[in-house]
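User: You have something folded?
Assistant:
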Amino acid sequence: MPIEIAYLVILLAAICLVFVLFKRPIYEAMFIAYVVMIAVTGKWSEFFKHLYTTSTNTLFYAIVAFLAAAQIFGATKIIDQCIAIILSIFGRIRGGAGYVALVGSTFMGSLSGSGAGNVAATGVFTIPAMKRSGFPAHLAANVEMAASTMGNMIPPAGVITAAYGVLNSLYPDKYTMSNFWIVMWGISLWFILQRTITLYVFCRYYKVKPMDKKDIPRFGEAIKKGWTALLLPVIIFLPFFLDSRLKATFFTARLGEGAGSFSSCILLFTPGLAALYAMLISRKKADSSPKAIASMLGDKVKSIVPVCATIFFAYSISNLFGTLNVGENIGAYISGWGLPLWVLAFFIPLFTALLGMVLPGSSQTAIFGSALVSIFVGAGGNPFLAAAMLPVITGAMEGMTPPLALCMYTAMGIAGSRLKETTINCLIWVGLHYLLSVIVMLGFLPIWGLM
């Protein structure tokens, strides 16, 4: 057995020991786990290197920026205006705000290419709307989390491009990107259906009811008071849409290599732009002066810092594992087992779910993609299906699997939910995603466009 498997076991044991037994905060558990892994691997010379690498990670700062922006949105009351419009439309439907989150966050996740970043961007709207309509805080957090992570398996998400690259490297010029996108949509439709049914059941279980008619704003009045607030989602979402649709033609032609830098900084400048707009349009309705905003952020920083610290040390652990080639070595070990197809259909999604605790989906696809597809095909599986499932079991799973569930922590920070309840509910969403992944890989469901 390779030493890399022992690394994974030690990491999870360290986190559980500190968090469960000693009942320390999860961010402390993450930091101690990082120190333990440095000690176990003997990489003391790289202790600050991985921390520094995380400190220069664009996505980490984007999450922090959106969490801070969420506090500004709340202080300026602009979210209340957006929620009023949402409730005026869907308040009469049981769990209506949850279905809005499911559809909207899934779509936006495909554009942003980042599960955690998308939770931060869309969750500031959807989570308060769900809580206002009767969702428990932990359920609201996980509905947003489950929807946002699914964006990584819907074109034009970046993980899909990486998965197609794996397929094309194994079977040059045999399959086209267009066909691959169609299959990804075909697979995604089943998972959208699964999440819709799950949401329906949870709404019944928690007795989420349609709002009382007297508490539902009239649509005309809500639009009249809050139409300017409707531009806030546009300000946040439009840059992602334009970048995804026009990058290859418009931005690259004018910016050259700078188009890539433009794409990477969208998550950074968007929350600041949105926060400035929120303060501008609410200056007559709330105290949105710089002094008031600074005071508010000072009061709210205690709720932001623990989430940010957890995410920071999770990324640091991932960086360490990347330099140790943990994924590559474990993949080579598994390929020598010679497992039958039906066993692989159960094992591969479980394997990537465990890896999702410590490695981003894009890293998993790059490191393990070729090995996993080759193993599946060697057992008689369809290579097209195997490659198309990579974003499903890596990109969509990476932010859902505790204890390093970045999407869950980000949503939890916005919802203000407790860790225990949020984690238990999260595991249900993860388990259902895993079971459907197995069913699809076994070929039990028809997939649109599958060759």
